[in-house]
Design brief:
The two termini are 37 Å apart. The protein is globular, with a radius of gyration of 22 Å. It is 36% helix and 22% strand. It has 18 helices and 18 strands.
Length: 473
């Protein structure tokens, strides 16, 4: 562990968040933000963030680790950072410093680049591979989201789970019901979260209660974009969201491409080559396309703001096209293993220069924890005789995810001026974690222990826009 002298600064504020409470104590309450008058001037402790891509540059040059560091915060942004003693000299007026001690690690909030909030209640549903799982579990559950009250309650649970696991930004699928998007963004707005979400577009090969039409989907999506995308006073963005090629007709995909052209700063999210039967089905439905990706490409949906989940069974030509378009991939290891979909070839994608982030893919994904998601990503790489270092994994979960979402100018690192979304990890959160940490001597070892043994208990505090989260009844 890194040693440093304890500061003499008096701590003026006491955080009222979860510390070592059981996860249930945190989740069963509604998460609210502290009032503005309670904001912290600075936080102190070991800092870690990324400045470059460790898949491209030497790992030691891709991150900055300050054993005794400090972040100075003002109006939700980082205004200074560095070694604590140096920062204090630059800011002698600091009167409120929260010191988290040497057995912590302060780092940017996790970024989840692919999830379905509407599937929160079916996480851990037994059996089935992708197509059968959709019909048996997903579609029946998503029918309930025509009810705003139901959708709002699930969004509340979903966002509480994200925050308790240290995730401060996510790209999220709603359902085909416009009200499901309203409910999600309303809950995210209450928490001042930076979120991206969109109404699912699907006009065939699904229950009629979930199907829209190209015309209704166009008008609903236009209304949602105008209502929520970069709404003043919020940190919300919209994503045009065709579920996947099999549930959209050519007419609807053409409409989605039209929406993208009309709103070039809006993101696109969908699924690509998750399951072999799915890939075969796409070939049957779109015989005039050269492959699965070409379905999206012919409708001008393969862009530099597009994020495609899974990409397990993509061809080399499709990987090259994704790289050329500067599209991103969401690597979702727990979902890929749970549904038996296959093993994502991380090395091929990184060698091609594609931006990659990690996705929990709730509810086929089995954990809201990005720490556990990193651990499973390591195992997926191992099964292919590939390596995924702890430095690389934490990059994917922070700055890598921010880059995949084209949000790295705002979040993902401790660069001065960025939004102050960050977390405090407790290296002694459990007896086993504490015992194992005592055997480590390097940062890399500690990070690897965190991603193999850590979970929501490890996340001691979550800060959103510089404000600590607390649980209230």
């Amino acid at each position: 562990m890194c040693e440093y002298a304890q500061p003499a600064t008096q701590i003026r504020y006491t955080l009222h968040c979860r510390h070592h409470n059981p996860a249930s104590d945190f989740i069963t309450n509604t998460l609210m933000l502290m009032p503005d008058s309670y904001s912290l001037t600075a936080v102190r402790g070991p800092l870690l963030h990324f400045t470059d891509n460790p898949f491209v540059v030497d790992e030691q040059n891709a991150c900055e680790h300050v054993p005794d560091g400090m972040l100075v915060l003002n109006k939700g942004r980082i205004i200074d950072t560095g070694p604590a003693d140096d920062v204090r000299k630059r800011h002698p007026q600091l009167t409120a410093v929260e010191d988290f001690g040497r057995n912590s690690l302060i780092m940017p909030g996790f970024v989840d680049v692919h999830s379905h909030y509407s599937q929160t209640h079916i996480i851990g549903a037994y059996g089935e591979q992708l197509l059968d799982w959709l019909n048996r579990y997903t579609f029946p559950e998503e029918m309930k989201f025509a009810d705003h009250q139901y959708a709002s309650a699930v969004a509340d649970t979903f966002l509480n789970q994200l925050l308790s696991n240290g995730t401060t930004t996510a790209m999220v699928f709603a359902t085909s019901h416009p009200v499901s998007v309203d409910a999600f963004f309303e809950q995210a707005q209450q928490r001042n979260l930076r979120m991206i979400a969109g109404k699912v577009l699907m006009d065939r090969n699904a229950p009629s209660a979930l199907c829209d039409t190209p015309e209704s989907a166009y008008h609903d999506t236009k209304r949602l974009i105008n209502t929520w995308h970069r709404k003043p006073g919020t940190r919300l963005e919209y994503a045009i969201t065709p579920r996947f090629a099999p549930t959209s007709s050519d007419a609807q995909l053409e409409m989605a491409g039209r929406l993208k052209r009309e709103h070039p700063d809006v993101a696109v999210q969908s699924h690509l080559s998750e399951n072999r039967k799915e890939v075969q089905w796409v070939a049957e439905l779109f015989p005039d396309c050269e492959g699965y990706l070409d379905v999206y490409d012919q409708h001008r949906l393969v862009t530099d703001r597009s994020v495609f989940a899974h990409c397990i069974h993509t061809t080399d030509a499709e990987v090259e096209r994704l790289a050329a378009a500067r599209s991103a991939i969401a690597f979702c290891p727990t979902a890929n293993l749970f549904l038996g979909s296959g093993l994502f070839d991380l090395r091929r994608a990184t060698d091609a220069g594609i931006s990659i982030g990690l996705g929990t893919d709730i509810g086929a994904g089995t954990s809201f924890s990005m720490l556990q998601t990193m651990g499973e990503a390591y195992k997926v790489a191992q099964l292919q005789q590939q390596s995924l270092s702890a430095i690389q994994a934490f990059y994917l979960a922070t700055l890598g995810g921010a880059r995949a979402l084209k949000l790295d100018d705002r979040i993902g690192s401790f660069t001065i001026g960025k939004e102050a979304d960050f977390i405090v990890l407790n290296l002694q959160a459990t007896p086993l974690l504490d015992s194992r940490m005592q055997q480590t001597t390097t940062l890399e070892e500690r990070l690897f222990v965190l991603m193999t043994l850590g979970d929501d208990r490890t996340v001691q505090h979550t800060f959103v826009h510089g404000t600590p989260i607390r649980a209230v009844s």
